[in-house]
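Record 1 of the preview.
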Amino acid sequence: MKTVLPGAKIGVLGSGQLGRMFAIAARRMGYRVHTYSPDRDSPTGQIADVEIDAPYEDLDRVREFASSVDVVTFEFENVPGATAEAASECALVRPAGTVLHITQHRLREKTFLRDHGFPVTRFEPVRTAADLRRVMPGFGAAILKTAGFGYDGKGQYRVRTLAEAEKAWAAMGGQEAVLEAVVDFEAELSVVGVRSADGECAFFEPFRNAHVNGILDVTTSPAPFDRGITQRAHELARAALEALNVTGVLCVEFFLGRDRELLINELAPRPHNSGHLTIDACITSQFEQQLRAVCGLPLGSTLMLRPAAMANLLGDLWNDSEPDWAAACSLPQVKLHLYGKSDPRPGRKMGHLTATADAPESAERIVRAARAMLVSEHGAGRLMPPSATARR
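->
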């Protein structure tokens, strides 16, 4: 197993906020960071030593980039497969491109999970109009999702009739899709796990997640689940890491059904929005764990020092005026994380707040209050409480 020691150069494919927080962790431990994406002055590029802005399809530039670093990792999973393959010709790539190939495509991901015996929501592939007419009558209420390149609720349509499903499929442009049964669940949770090249695994405590309009709104940890649920979630996360042969971080998102059974909703082979609170609440953050795994270092402790809650800051908060950062920062338990994005569009993740407290419920109350204080003086933004309707 190759160990990449501090002082080496880490290549990151992608340049968003996940890469930014990874780069901060890497530079703190003495590594150099190079980032590659089509964007300039990106969240990652503002922190990295070197920022390359070039198309993912320019495979010669990708090979040149990979040749300049010691190991390559990813900050999001929608990097083209050919890009990952080209990088692997010139550098160690962790996790492997095969992991991205499976997890960047909903149908491939769900088929992989089902075929390997993981509990998943009932689903059917939809590749033609005939497929949709054949499978829809057996579902009733369902979610029609694009097979590829969907996140934060994008590319998803809730449908109840064949006519609605046909209209939704047409709105997708008739592209490959997956039809999923609606799940009656008690809660949504996620587990961030990490696996080293030699098979060592470590897991954070499950996070409880609340979504608004398909976008993560608030995460709390420790989650109020009994040890049986936690143990089962960790078992499934470990099995997924091993089945995919991941070297790096993997987030497994779950539905907890009314029957107390867990169903896997999605996989993300990189740090996850729900794990951002680990920066302020745990001995080792999810980003440092990613760094340790891809560099072949021993994994760090996932011990949570204090209960915590995280609240996303979307572009809606700006509404033509700057949020009141001083007001939120006046709460001593609150930490502010901004991602360096200059265009605060509605629904765009611009940053997050984390609060720690003696209990997760207290941390959640504090972080929600801090977010409300960002707009209390000038009335900007459209703050929405967690939706009573479940995300799919």
